[in-house]
Amino acid sequence: EPEVTQTPSHQVTQMGQEVILRCVPISNHLYFYWYRQILGQKVEFLVSFYNNEISEKSEIFDDQFSVERPDGSNFTLKIRSTKLEDSAMYFCASGQAVETQYFGPGTRLLVL
Amino acid sequence: AQSVSQHNHHVILSEAASLELGCNYSYGGTVNLFWYVQYPGQHLQLLLKYFSGDPLVKGIKGFEAEFIKSKFSFNLRKPSVQWSDTAEYFCAVISSNTGKLIFGQGTTLQVKP
Fold it and tell me: What is the rounded CA–CA span in Å between residue B3 and residue B45?
């Protein structure tokens, strides 16, 4: 059964550094998402992406964040200058339709 | 603002006990409701979903949920839990036509063998 994959599984970075989190969605899916979960808190929506553009973004998704689908298979989340409060588990999800999303295993980001 | 509330943060049960996890949502439009499960060390998996029709929805692994519109609730149930049901359970609602999911805070279920 096809799955959403994410790399790396863990990333440790210094505050102010740029990080790129990578996701490979399921191949025939059209809708792509990033969510995050800060330890002990709810899973929060960051951004949705369809037809090569952002369809919705949350208040969290400020100018420090960007998403890209550079080659038709990968879907990346870039954080330009990480802050301590960006430490979280980041989940990618994809779906053929908006109603059903399949989640990846997550990338645990730790900002020191 | 749309929100999802799960009443129980941590539930401990013995095997064969019955389970009910509460979920209430606050959303004025047409609701699409979900329960996701996250087993230890694994990713979020869809347990079941409700879009329309029969308000009693059956999902995988013997779980079911009932949509009660008048109570804005979508509680998850299982008649007899197993040790392998130990996991974190998330209720969620789609809040826009872009597919944005709003999650509850999650309930950790621990089943003692």
Answer: 21
